Amino acid sequence: MARAYTPSFLAQRLVQQTLNWIFPSNDEPCPVCSRPIPAQLAGGRPGKRDAMKQLCAFCQQNLALVPVCAQAVRMRADGRPMVVTSALVYDHFVRTLIRAYKYDHVVEIAPFFASALAATRGAHPPADVVVPVPTAPDRLRMRGYDHVLLVASSFARAEGLPCARALVRLGTSGRTRSQTAKDKSRRLRELAGQFVARDASAIRGRRVLLVDDVVTTGATLATCAQVLYEAGAKAVHAAVIARVE
């Protein structure tokens, strides 16, 4: 999982941990809402081995109340059927969670998203390998971590499957900004050539499960699936955290 973080992000976390050690506080802030966590509760938490318990009681309760509504839809990729399963509805609270995870460095939410994906287990066809949809290079540099890879690798471990970084995204995210306002055909045109296979041996002859954060029209998934088929994948289906309805 360490490969999902950039060196600069890890350095920032190390500096913050060092400052917390030098200037200790009785109350630690919740990484999601910044509410102070009483010292007696923070002291009993197992730390990095259980990241969800680093959240305050309010956020843990809110996450526990998020309904997992698994849904499977069929679409086509490279002329073949592809089942796309989703775990959550992209409503206001889920959107807030995903934005905090992607843009505010709240990586502690990743295990929750991975567990949500695990709840869709019976909705998608069997797979041999999990492949995350890669993050654009400029986004990776800006955030300091690959948010989809973090969730995909955690989900793959829970499923007992390998997680292969079989795709690379070229260029920048500028061409695909504000994708929710575009139709599928336009997005397919803009995504053409954006993804290439980096490790065909990891997926050749295997059933691939693509993992992404949010699905709107499905253009990104279809484009990635086509590249994977061209690289020799036997079948490609997808699982995403949330769906836009």
UniProtKB/TrEMBL annotation:
Keyword line: Glycosyltransferase, Transferase
PANTHER family, per database record: DNA UTILIZATION PROTEIN YHGH
Protein name: Phosphoribosyltransferase family protein
Gene3D superfamilies: 3.40.50.2020
The keyword Nucleus is annotated on this UniProt entry: no
Domain of life: Bacteria
Organism whose genome encodes this protein: Alicyclobacillus sendaiensis PA2
Keyword Transferase: yes
InterPro entries, per the entry: ComF/GntX_DNA_util-trans, PRTase-like, PRTase_dom
Phosphoribosyltransferase domain segment(s): 185-243
GO molecular function, a single term: glycosyltransferase activity
Family stated for the protein in its record: Belongs to the ComF/GntX family.
